[in-house]
Design goal:
Elements: H1 41-54, E1 93-94, H2 126-132, E2 137-141, H3 142-147, H4 153-157, E3 163-166, E4 174-177, E5 185-189, E6 192-193, E7 213-219, E8 233-239, E9 247-257, E10 263-274, E11 277-289, E12 292-299, E13 305-322, E14 325-329, E15 334-338, E16 341-360, E17 367-397, E18 400-428, E19 436-465, E20 471-496, E21 503-504, E22 511-529, E23 533-550, E24 555-574, E25 577-588, E26 599-600, E27 610-612, E28 620-633, E29 638-660, E30 665-689, E31 694-711, E32 718-719, E33 727-737, E34 742-751, E35 754-760, E36 763-769, E37 772-784, E38 787-794, E39 800-808, E40 814-824, E41 827-834
Parallel strand pairs: 5-8, 27-30
Antiparallel strand pairs: 1-2, 2-7, 3-4, 5-6, 7-8, 9-10, 9-41, 10-11, 11-13, 11-14, 12-13, 12-40, 13-16, 14-15, 15-17, 16-17, 17-18, 18-19, 19-20, 20-21, 20-22, 22-23, 23-24, 24-25, 25-28, 26-27, 28-29, 29-30, 30-31, 31-32, 31-33, 33-34, 34-37, 35-36, 36-39, 37-38, 38-41, 39-40
């Protein structure tokens, strides 16, 4: 097993402002009970209307005073003492997209609070930026990432409002904004999609170590400048940028779980600027271990166990990442940028599964057959993704500029899997005592070899200009050529009682190629309507051509054009209060393998229909409405946000069984079957607590109430979208002891259970999943001016995923039920960061 020591970048080197803090602080604890009440869509609409009506009009002669700019702190080669650290302004904050000055308030005249600079990040207050932004964009900066000792982007996102993470327990890899399935969330890296192996167009965020990340943006409603493929929202991961002065950081991390360890990683960050040329070298290697225990049991209608599985799985992942960046200011008007990216994940999975299958005589109920199997699984997977990207920026005039970008990116995924099954089958006579009738040994070997390749060439051209004082206009063009290929070969061979030749079991949709070419054109205007109002309006056109070829060389082509408008309104009601209202049209494109013109022939009956693809699928479209109020206080050391959202989803894609009169067979295929709705409310708050006599304590939390409606195509009942919980919540605190050079804190994630209904192979599967709560803790010490030591614990509650599945036939008759339990281990780690 690989054992290495890991580095994660989490230090800084700008000089901080210090503030005198009380030496003796009394720590008090309190308990708090929260009753989470879900609401229906009528109340949500009333809330949106009442907030809009309640906003008072503003006179055109009202003006805002400009806050004097603070003196820029000097840069040095030291990282901050903990006594110099600014306590976090908010857990999830909004990124500014303009240069509006902050109005002067009485608090603004106070001395600056404790502040923190992080490598590659300017000295800013993100609560101010939240209120200045013309559009709502949640931002997670390096201060929060470094404070909690996160390893991957998935761990960072788990604590944010409205975010649910999918994947096995302990592996935060599939982002599900608003609790919707992963295909409704769009993942961008530096503003562009990155190809991955998933059929749902998703990107596994656990592949990106936090050592590469400058900040993360969570976009609820997009503007016209952003790709429209985010019905639930978009995650934009911004990688570290080339610095204006020398930076250097080396981090080593060691980690262990309850049964596996030690393991960890190493990361290096080095950058500088020489004249008009600046560069950054950011690279890292880290190992992740994910041991799990699984239990499954299937029961028949008489509650007898027909199948019982116990599995022990050891999964080891090695991540290698390189993200350099080079910027050359060729002239006073021209800048060239080159930012390649390399991500590779090597995964080794070894598992042992013990399976008992039982059959019973009817009507006596005596045991008829007992099959005992041992399955050994060996799986090796490698995902290699890389990007070569560059841009040319030119200033055309004092109020206009142009940017030309070109990138080529590719992802290759290879998987080799071997399952060796050895078993003993005992048959019994239908008599008292179930006497043994026969015993025989069985053995098989199943092999899977899979390759996926996804390549894309993308060109962009953007113009920014300001024809009038109150207008900022952006016009852009994007064109991409994308090729995707999948080839999965499956064979099965009997080894006992006799050795037979291997038989190929490749499914019809396991081999395909897809060509997807896209042209996008957009225009956006940011309009200042006086000192208090900002309106951002835009229109984006996306044209897509698809060509899908199945393994039997059958080919079909499809093309379509969508027009996606967006409108964002911001009103500064008071100096510390902002009201927002936005609307945007987004889309969700179908799964890749749903496009393929394949046929998987079954019995062709209602109980076992044939499974076919649907190359004529249309993308789902959504009109999203969001409104909210943001309030800050205490010289921007506290913030409160309340946001409501409502989305109308058209052409919802669902699996449906229909009778085909041309061949007299029943067929299951994905179809655009109807419409749906998604709605909810997000609340987040964070504040310092001097009112409790604890100025060094920061409390933060958020809760999101989530709801949706879609008509079930089989029962015609109204149900939720797949696997959406009723709410998700996070609580936490951070406490600083400056005299000791120390800070510590906890974060607690609350995810309730849910019920899901899904059509699979002609049968209806109803799943009830229990709630999952998780707890993380951290503690950091400043050992020297340029050395920091951190301790952390992840999944301290040893989260267990518990599911109860019930399967009904196509006619609604109960067939069986299934219990599933999966447990992940606790994780403990230590991190040492050194600036040299």
């Amino acid at each position: 097993m690989r054992n290495i020591i890991g580095f994660l970048t989490n230090s800084s080197q700008k000089k901080r402002q210090a503030v005198n803090l009380p030496e003796n602080l009394l720590i008090s604890s309190s308990s708090m009970q929260s009753n989470l009440i879900f609401f229906n869509r009528e109340l949500l609409i009333i809330f949106c209307m009442s907030v809009a009506v309640a906003v008072p009009p503003v006179s055109a002669v009202e003006t805002e005073k400009v806050t004097p700019k603070a003196t820029q702190p000097q840069i040095n080669d030291q990282i901050p003492h903990l006594k110099d650290i600014q306590l976090p302004p908010t857990n999830a904050q909004l990124l500014t997209q303009d240069t509006e000055d902050t109005p002067e308030t009485p608090e603004a005249n106070q001395d600056a609070d404790i502040e923190l600079d992080v490598i590659g990040t300017p000295l800013v207050n993100f609560i101010e930026e939240r209120q200045q932004s013309p559009t709502g964009v949640i931002i997670l900066d390096q201060k929060e990432i470094q404070r909690f000792n996160y390893r991957t982007v998935g761990e960072v996102l788990r604590r944010q409002p409205g975010v649910v993470l999918g994947g096995p327990p302990g592996e935060d890899k599939d982002v599900r904004l608003l609790g919707l399935p992963k295909e409704y969330t769009q993942i961008l890296i530096n503003g562009q999609r990155f190809p991955d192996g998933g059929e749902n167009r998703e990107f596994k965020v656990d592949r990106i170590p936090v050592s590469l990340v400058e900040r993360i943006e969570i976009i609820s409603n997009p503007t016209a400048t952003q790709n429209s493929q985010g019905v639930a929202g978009t995650i934009n991961i911004i990688l570290k940028k080339a610095p204006d002065s020398r930076i250097s950081d080396l981090t080593i991390t060691g980690t262990t779980s309850e049964t596996v360890g030690p393991f960890g990683g190493v990361s290096l960050l080095y950058g500088d600027k020489q004249g008009d040329f600046s560069y950054l070298i950011s690279a890292g290697v880290q190992q992740r271990e994910a041991p799990k225990d699984k239990f499954k049991q299937t029961l028949d209608i008489q509650n007898r166990p027909t199948q019982t599985e116990r599995e022990n799985e050891d999964k080891s992942q090695l991540d290698i990442s390189i993200a350099p960046r080079f910027v050359w200011r060729v002239s006073s008007r021209d800048t060239l940028t080159f930012d390649p990216l390399f991500l590779q994940t090597e995964e080794e999975k070894d598992a042992t599964r013990n399976v008992n299958n039982q059959r019973f005589f009817a009507p006596s109920g005596r045991l008829q057959e007992l099959q005992e199997q041992t399955v050994k699984i060996d799986e090796d997977k490698t995902i290699t993704g890389w990007r070569l990207g560059g841009s040319w920026e030119r200033q055309l005039s004092a109020t206009a500029d142009m940017k030309l970008g070109l990138l080529f990116q590719s992802t290759d995924e290879t998987k080799d899997k071997v399952e060796i099954t050895e078993g003993i089958t005992n048959t019994f006579r239908n008599a008292a005592g179930s006497p043994l009738n026969q015993r025989r040994n069985t053995g098989t070997i199943k092999r899977e070899s899979e390759t996926k390749t996804d390549e894309e060439l993308l060109g962009t051209l953007t113009f920014n200009f300001q024809p009038w004082e109150n207008h900022k206009i952006i016009v852009g063009f994007e064109g991409s050529l994308r090729d995707r290929e999948k080839k999965k070969i499956t064979t099965e061979q009997q080894t006992v009682p006799t050795l037979t030749p291997a038989v190929e079991r490749t499914a019809p949709k396991d081999i395909y190629t897809i060509e997807e070419n896209q042209l996008n054109v957009f225009i956006q205007d940011e309009i200042r309507l006086g000192e208090k109002h900002t309106l951002t309006a835009g229109l984006r056109m996306e044209m897509v051509d698809n060509k899908a070829t199945a393994g039997d060389s059958s080919t079909i082509e499809q093309s379509g054009t969508t027009f996606n408008p967006s409108l964002h309104y911001k009103y500064r009601v008071f100096p510390t209060t902002v009201f927002r209202l936005s609307a945007a049209r987004t889309i969700r494109r179908p799964k890749f393998d749903d496009f393929i013109p394949f046929r998987d022939t079954k019995n062709g009956t209602l109980l076992q229909p044939d499974v076919i693809g649907n190359p004529l699928l249309k993308p789902e479209t959504s009109l999203g409405l969001e409104t909210g109020i943001e309030q800050s206080w205490g010289n921007n050391t506290g913030a409160f946000g309340l946001n409501a959202f409502y989305r109308w989803v058209d052409d919802k894609i669902e699996n449906e069984v229909n009778f085909n009169p041309e061949n007299n067979r029943f067929e299951q295929s994905p179809r655009n079957v109807g419409d749906g709705k998604v709605y909810g409310l997000r609340l987040d708050v964070q504040t310092r607590t001097p009112f409790l006599g604890l100025p060094n304590l920061t409390l933060f939390g958020n809760v999101s109430f989530l709801g949706s409606e879609v008509e079930d195509q089989r029962t015609r009942e109204i149900r939720r979208f797949k696997e959406q919980p009723a709410y998700v919540a996070n609580l936490g605190f951070d406490y600083v002891i400056p005299e000791w050079g120390m800070n510590f804190g906890l974060t607690y994630n609350i995810l309730p259970g849910f019920e899901n209904r899904e059509l699979k192979d002609g049968k209806t599967e109803v799943t009830k999943q229990a709630g999952e709560n998780s707890l993380d803790a951290y503690m950091a010490f400043r050992l020297a001016d340029n050395v920091q030591l951190s301790l952390f614990g992840k999944n301290l509650l040893a989260a267990e995923r518990s599911k109860d599945r019930t399967v009904f036939s196509s006619t609604g008759v109960f067939e069986n039920s299934r219990i599933e339990r999966e447990t992940a281990e606790r994780l403990y780690g230590i991190s040492l960061s050194w600036q040299f």
